[in-house]
Amino acid sequence: MQDRKVMIVENKPISVRLWKMELYAPHIACCVKGGQFVMLEVSPTYDPMGRRAFAVADVRKENITIFYETVGRGTYLMANMKKGQSLRVFGPLGKGLFTFEGEKHLFIGGGVGLAGLTLHAKRAMKEGKEVMLIYGAKSAKDLGMKSWLEEENIPYIIYTEDGTEGRKGKVTEALLGFDNSWTVHACGPKAMLKAIKEEGKKFKLYLSLESRMACGWGVCLGCVVKTVKGYARVCYEGPVFKAEEVFI
Ligand SMILES: Cc1cc2nc3c(=O)[nH]c(=O)nc-3n(C[C@H](O)[C@H](O)[C@H](O)COP(=O)(O)OP(=O)(O)OC[C@H]3O[C@@H](n4cnc5c(N)ncnc54)[C@H](O)[C@@H]3O)c2cc1C
Ligand code: FES
Predict the structure, then answer these.
(1) Tens digits of per-residue pLDDT, 145-158?
(2) Which of 60, 89, 110, 233 is the most exposed place for a label (fewest CB within 10 A)?
(3) pLDDT at residue 171 above 90?
(4) What is the whole-number distance in angstroms between the Cα of residue 115 and the centre of ligand 1?
(5) Could you give the domains of the chain?
């Protein structure tokens, strides 16, 4: 992991609150694993304090791609950044422990949580694995990554809670359509991961957790979760955990 100033290659809105940012970061692009993340300096001042964590969703040659939802001061500042501008990026961070074991891989992403899965999904496809992605959201307007999935030829099934697009219901219902020959990888809101852990007991299941992060590299202990082996830092031992080993 390295902390370097990198240049913005692209920064554009792709739906109501979702943005796609591409950064020229060869030192991260070379080595990042699916499930790993970066910490971005959203402002050179103390307003707001600290960096913000984002999953590396894709790699193109020497560039990395992140998808971000504008939810607060830091991400609104990001949305105002321009192509050609530079910012400090620390990464790649976390262990990225998603597995390539098994021939069939099911990815379940809730909202922008999908961005935490796509790099591994693309690499699994490259390895010749059978891949299916479940993209869940409250409503059709929250499915900002859909056109990107199409561009990338990643097979997907949509679930919306209000039924405005795809199948009506929660992503956990998708589990019923798959047998235990599938390895499942999930990333999204805590409630969704909890439900998947509960209802996906028959699967080999990996969960990518999100937690409020200050340092991002194991120092502040602000992101700990309880596991069967004691406490673990989401930013350092995680963010990917085997479902049976982590309490959420
Ligand atoms: C490992 C990791 C990977 C992430 N990957 C992505 C990603 O790919 N795309 C993306 O859009 N977001 C991602 N996030 C969440 C992202 O870091 C936050 O949305 C961002 O820090 C918000 O910054 P802000 O200054 O805009 O909002 P703030 O003003 O800091 O907060 C705004 C609101 O968002 C909530 N919030 C902030 N951070 C988190 C968090 N980590 N988990 C849950 N709620 C939070 C706050 O409670 C508050 O309600 C990731 C977080 C982690 C820990
Ligand atoms: S964010 Fe500091 S230890 Fe994880």
Answers:
(1) 999 999 999 999 99
(2) 60
(3) yes
(4) 13
(5) 2-93 (2.40.30.10), 104-208 (3.40.50.80)
